[in-house]
Amino acid sequence: MTPEVTRRALMLGTAGAAGTAALSGCSRGGPADQDQPLRIHANDSTTFQPNFNPYGGVPLQGASGLIYENLRLATAMSPGESEPWLATELEWNEDGTVLTVTLREDVEFTDGERLDAEDVVFTFLMHRDVPATNTVALGIADAIALDSRTVQIEFDGTSFAQEADICTRPIVPEHVFSAFEDPSTEQVADPVGSGPYQLERFSDQLYTFVKNDGHWAAEEFEPRELAWPSFTTQTMNTALQAGEIDWSGGFIANIDQIFVDHDPEHRGYWYPGNGTVNLTFNLEKELFQDLELRRGISLAVDRREIAEIAYQQYFGPPHPTGLPRPTFEEFIAEEYRDLEFEVDLEEAERVLDEAGYERGGDGIRVAPDGTPLVFELPIPSSYNDWVTTSQILGSQLSKVGIALTPRGISFEQWLEARDTGNFFVTISTAGAGQNPWYLYRSMLSSEYRTEGDEPVVANFQRWYDEETDELLSSYADTDDEQEQRAAVEGLQRIMIEQMPTLPIVTAPNWFNFNTELWTGFPDESDPYALGAPVQNADRVMVLRNLTRTTN
């Protein structure tokens, strides 16, 4: 599944929420800098609700990974690799339907209870029995404890491809979560986890974590206290400018002037591709089932102009395969390596003319069945980057006789429209995940198809295609790298030739850092993890790498 948090993790628009008062206790103070917490921005909510349940509602950032741990650590920056964490060993059976997990011996929850195989079994059976907690659509058939350290997880199909998802599920304590009537809705204000940090204090504008000294790897984490303040758009920019944030995720307009130029020795940013933002047609509408209409629209869209104006050249246009660069560049097929989207208004006019979309007296094209090519583009009005993007798209498509009018609505309204198919065209995001299969699955798999008005959770354009599903299955059914690569190349061909959705922007991992107090953040020269503090495994990897800056 692809919950909306994915979009926030990728495209954390301009920050949103509480005031500088929340940061006042975290400001500089000479020698006291050595006692400063690591100050983190990962939320854009005006106020916080006390919920640290990694599987319930919208959990606060940090709950996954730092309070509740993963079996392994895996990052999209190293596809196909993982390192031991709670699990020291993994072993698949030959057909990829059973995974045997060997756990560490020395793990305790913060209430003193030992974490053992039963907690892992409980977590995965919860995914099976409470589908709302199974946010990555694992096909769990069963899970059993072979002994106190060994778990056997059985899947209802070959699951090699989902190893990273399996191993980055936060493990929760059975003795706590088994008391919840519905763990997918329970609000957990006082979390009991096994991770390297634990909740210290909470208010609606600031919460803090403190290092768990009883953690089995406590010596690997130098930051003792983590502060998570909330912000409004204005206070976020002000706090960044004043150097009051060490580690942040979020789109910041004019990042060099607002942030870097005030202290270029210590401040920087790194925005590697972490997904794709797509112009999303509702393919259940007969009109958009016409490939030539989609092709004509694509030829009229200038992605470079969108990247330059809406995103201030922080990154270039997306690749036609939809694979984000540089993250998944190595997976792009050789025949497509140098391919780029072209802008050709004359060719767009020709394609649309030949497909029967004639211009009316007002200059607007009309479909062969008489339907004018006039569309609203619903988007969340709070997504400033998408607002600008949609305005540019409207201007570009007007040149070829298509009227596309942005309509800003509430996030909740847009979410409902996107998920229920109550739109002709919109914008949506697909997260990269741990390898290209995750990205293509979330965009193109028929497994997300629903009946009637039931909302979908991914594949928002509703592309249902037998060949695509076969390629996705062939990837998932093997652990042979060459066979997997062949499947990914087949999916790239479908993206390029059939245009089920139109990538318009690379979805970056927004990551800004200040090394005045802490150093060791990832960057282009040392891309050991994604930098934004919103991925559960990556933030563990980053925190483990940070050390106090010495002057």
UniProtKB/TrEMBL annotation:
<dbReference type="InterPro" id="IPR006311">
    <property type="entry name" value="TAT_signal"/>
</dbReference>
<dbReference type="InterPro" id="IPR030678">
    <property type="entry name" value="Peptide/Ni-bd"/>
</dbReference>
<protein>
    <recommendedName>
        <fullName>Solute-binding protein family 5 domain-containing protein</fullName>
    </recommendedName>
</protein>
<dbReference type="Pfam" id="PF00496">
    <property type="entry name" value="SBP_bac_5"/>
</dbReference>
<feature type="domain" description="Solute-binding protein family 5">
    <location>
        <begin position="83"/>
        <end position="443"/>
    </location>
</feature>
<dbReference type="GO" id="GO:0015833">
    <property type="term" value="P:peptide transport"/>
</dbReference>
<dbReference type="InterPro" id="IPR000914">
    <property type="entry name" value="SBP_5_dom"/>
</dbReference>
<dbReference type="InterPro" id="IPR039424">
    <property type="entry name" value="SBP_5"/>
</dbReference>
<dbReference type="GO" id="GO:1904680">
    <property type="term" value="F:peptide transmembrane transporter activity"/>
</dbReference>
<dbReference type="GO" id="GO:0043190">
    <property type="term" value="C:ATP-binding cassette (ABC) transporter complex"/>
</dbReference>
<dbReference type="GO" id="GO:0042597">
    <property type="term" value="C:periplasmic space"/>
</dbReference>
